[in-house]
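Crash report, auto-generated. Payload:
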Amino acid sequence: MSSSSDRRSFLVLFQPAGKRGRFPAGVTVLDAARALGVDLDSICGGRGLCGRCQITTAEGSFAKLGIESASHHLEPETEAERRFRQRRGLAAERRLGCQARICGDLVIEVPTESQLHRPLVRKEADRRPVVLDPVVTLHHVMPEPPRLERPRADRERLLDALAAEWGLAGVDLDPALLPSLQKLLRQPEEGVTVAVRNGATVVQIRPGFRDRALGVAVDVGSTTIAAQLCDLLSGEVLAADGEVNPQIRFGEDLMSRVSYALVHEDGAARMTALVREAVDGLVARLASEADAAPDDILEWVVVGNPIMHHLFLGLDPTPLGAAPFTPAVEGAVEMRLVELGIRAAAPGARVHLPPLVAGHVGADCLAAVLAAGIHLGEEITLLVDVGTNAEIVLGNRERLLACSSPTGPALEGAQISCGQRATAGAIERVRIDPETLEPRFRVIGCPLWSDDPDFPAATAALPISGICGSGVIEAIAEMYLAGILGADGRIDPALAARSPRVCLEGRTAAYRLHPGPPEIRITQEDVRAIQLAKAALHAGAELLMERLGVDHVDRVLLAGAFGSHIDPLRAMVLGMIPDCPLERVDSIGNAAGAGARIALLNRAARRELAALAARIEKIETAIEPRFQERFVAALGFPRAPARHPHLARRVTLPAAPRQERRRSRRRRA
Amino acid sequence: MSSSSDRRSFLVLFQPAGKRGRFPAGVTVLDAARALGVDLDSICGGRGLCGRCQITTAEGSFAKLGIESASHHLEPETEAERRFRQRRGLAAERRLGCQARICGDLVIEVPTESQLHRPLVRKEADRRPVVLDPVVTLHHVMPEPPRLERPRADRERLLDALAAEWGLAGVDLDPALLPSLQKLLRQPEEGVTVAVRNGATVVQIRPGFRDRALGVAVDVGSTTIAAQLCDLLSGEVLAADGEVNPQIRFGEDLMSRVSYALVHEDGAARMTALVREAVDGLVARLASEADAAPDDILEWVVVGNPIMHHLFLGLDPTPLGAAPFTPAVEGAVEMRLVELGIRAAAPGARVHLPPLVAGHVGADCLAAVLAAGIHLGEEITLLVDVGTNAEIVLGNRERLLACSSPTGPALEGAQISCGQRATAGAIERVRIDPETLEPRFRVIGCPLWSDDPDFPAATAALPISGICGSGVIEAIAEMYLAGILGADGRIDPALAARSPRVCLEGRTAAYRLHPGPPEIRITQEDVRAIQLAKAALHAGAELLMERLGVDHVDRVLLAGAFGSHIDPLRAMVLGMIPDCPLERVDSIGNAAGAGARIALLNRAARRELAALAARIEKIETAIEPRFQERFVAALGFPRAPARHPHLARRVTLPAAPRQERRRSRRRRA
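Recovered output after restart:
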């Protein structure tokens, strides 16, 4: 039965879109979907190659709609479909929308995975729904071969095909791609797969049919660089990892980096080269893990604090180090990655750097807000992204305030006498018995508490090397709760008589956490460093609350590597974060990285970031006299332990560790 | 008298624009002109630095208009004006429009040189009026210094200033400029001068006030590369020169270059590197002649035949060598010059390559049409751009046809036994006495004819080394007119008995032009080579005439280096060009280069080129059977000398040379 000889037309309803229309016999389901604006994916442009337009037919009578639907209301399977079924597999009831031609009334179901703009599966730090809609899309086209009568040029035939097959008009082509285009169009029978950015610019052309398009989301932190390699066609994270920012050799905190750039003529250039190489190498490693070639990587999104942003772009960070803290650029920047010397990407691939809010609040902060979705809800939410600098955002969909607070590296375990980064062997959890002043603790890499009889054996191969940021917080909070520290943060020297854990060395005191070797102790200086850091956080949050005119917050979100490991109760005991019901405090992990990934996978999110940058009110702590006042006031601990509202729960808290211990025993059994 | 306290308003008429309006006291003439849309130039944005907004006031009563105009209806000279007058000079009656404030009714005259869009002075090959309107414009701005209360970024403050001071909204900035922007905005008191391309993109930022913006127009021919360095602010040509295309070592004609690329794997890449280096070096030399820095050069326009176009862009030219002659790209191409490895330009400067018409007709041909203006007039004009390939265009504003005809290198003196390029010592003019068969000639570098008694002395230091293309044409035309050649192009061997000038060597004959050393002769093979070349030209022109349905042309324009030296009468005698009244034949020089210059200086001309590319009907001689027929038919000479309509004039022709001889004698005296 030739479709062209059949003059009848049929009623077709697409579900779940609920769109319907009449189509002549012989029209493909894909064409019908496109005509109705139904979201049905395709890369191959209807050649039965990509399998992204799979549909099913609903069998039965839809009397209300006047449709009697049946799978035989589609013409039989085509040769292309048979080949696809053999080669790539296709569920029995599924048809390829581009092959299946309508020959009767139909109700067609479009499964979620066949929708181009399908909802993304949420990740750890995503607190809002996101739809897949990447800035780069793939299109397989078959440019017409050149004819002597009308010898149209390669570029023009390619653009004609994009317009004719995909409705993409007015597309431009990066002239750097012309040499490869020439070569590829010599084998016209295979066609080419074109990557189009923003529906406007061809950024890659590859031979034949391709259905791989990857993207990278990078969060460049002062201490850690984290990258995620994503599939732009599915939204999946294929590989993710982090590594230490090699700039750290020039100073742990941001201001040391700025000083290095100020003092050394090539300082900024060296740091730029280092961070680009590190990111490039990290992404190359992720690509190799995911068995991907650089050519598969078509887009990067990079977020970071303003100083990392400037260094990544090869800009001088020193103006960010002194008033008036002027960035070189605050709007989004887009450029070709090759211009930055990056090789872990296709030659035409672009990097997008979302806007900054101000000299001290960067795209990392915006991205965290984007992922956390605090700009979408009613609740007054405090988002704290703790790093060497803490970014603090407060507000809801009505109004958002942000500041950056110089917490310093103490919260990440640096500048603490026995501090170390959060790696295996670091003490990360601490409990102190208020009666005996004896501690117990856990180390990263071992699920047992130190008072477990199996602990020495379990940590034999895992030398206890120091204490990480979250461990220091817990230790100091517990020292406070046990009365070892006063409200002013002083270690009570009188306790040295009661417990050998408290020791005096000259005029300064310390608490011995672990006899060692190496001995791990919390010194009075350590307590002071944490007091300074937490006072900075507290003062920042308070300043924002005052500006917003609220005396409490509905929710606290802790982001960043440190934020995900911190114990909310103990953070609250120390006054790091405002009081709030414990169940309203969440650790959301690397929210900045999550936001970068959202901006990678959804182009509207980039507009959302730009709108956020324009909307967020920036409070400059460095010039705000109230900040200094509050900072000094916040150096002590907020209230006597006995009066703390959460203290009743404290005794029941070890439940979780115990569960872990049971699991761990099972594993060993 | 403070202008702000004066509430009156005054009638102002601008001449020659004829626009008028009422303005409050204290408004500057520049602001009034802008408000009325009067074309008054400015680079400094009204700071009295650039002097481009000079105006005069018309004194007297303009009763019909109700205006009593007087120079004291402008407030007195400002401090900035006094400084400008001292530093740069200002005619007594002139005022700076940006400084002069209105305080009475006025008639203001805007001199031509103060108009931004002033008409360009026409050059040799320009046959149509052009208005200066370059794609790159300069704007001096004073971005606000950053303030702590609102620490806006450098880029954003620059773009704000462009919008506020110049009304340029939505301008983008090349991210590669950000590092230099940072440095420049640290000295905010001087401001910066910004080069904006197409009113859309900042391509350069320089410190303080600058009023130099240069551009380059390049015509890349197979044999010669010609470049003109132009002032984008005045339209002046500051320096121009040409040099041999170094690719010539890979073959004189285009097809040899294509063969070289076919046979050698890196052939195209080597030719690309050679031509880019040559153009870059030539432009650097022009810049140094004009005392300009690469940073002053903000735009290039490059035209060339399709093969030169492809090689310049690093594209494979081999598809242009065989049917279907497919270019890689036919639309205009724009990219940054640094991407091509070009250094004789500012880092952000772009190159514009206008479109091709087809695989054999390039932007050089379009540019020649643009300069000659044949698409604007009623006359049916034949434009012949003779090079190794001849581009032939026929038509008028109604319809235009074009073809490329493979004339080969004979017309440029190559593949001729005693041929050479048109340099000093080459014979360029030839006359043969039909009675005695004795020749006289002139050589390049000496104004005397060879029968002048002073000729031997004058050429003693100028060895006669060969004969150039135009000399060969004249020699063969004269041989035909003297009866040495028959209509079939055969040298009459019987004449050897009558004159020692005609000699026989084996079976082939030759005509001895100069005894030498070296002896210069025109051989039978030379005549055949010219017959092939002129037949190609003739057949091409005839084919276009047939297609256009005309049996004559109203005008013939000869372009290209060869075209400017050829003698129209003798070209017609040989049948190289169709018959046409001699005064309707013009040599217009390098029209392609002139067209490139127009596209450099006027942005609308680029749209005109694009429209021409779409409009010109391309005739592919290689696949046109009528071309072969006509080519064979055109090998002979068109009519017996005795019947030639212009022959009567011929005897009176030597007048011009005699005048030259007198001049030359005066010079020696």
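Post-recovery validation: Chain A touches chain B through 40 residues (CB under 8 Å).
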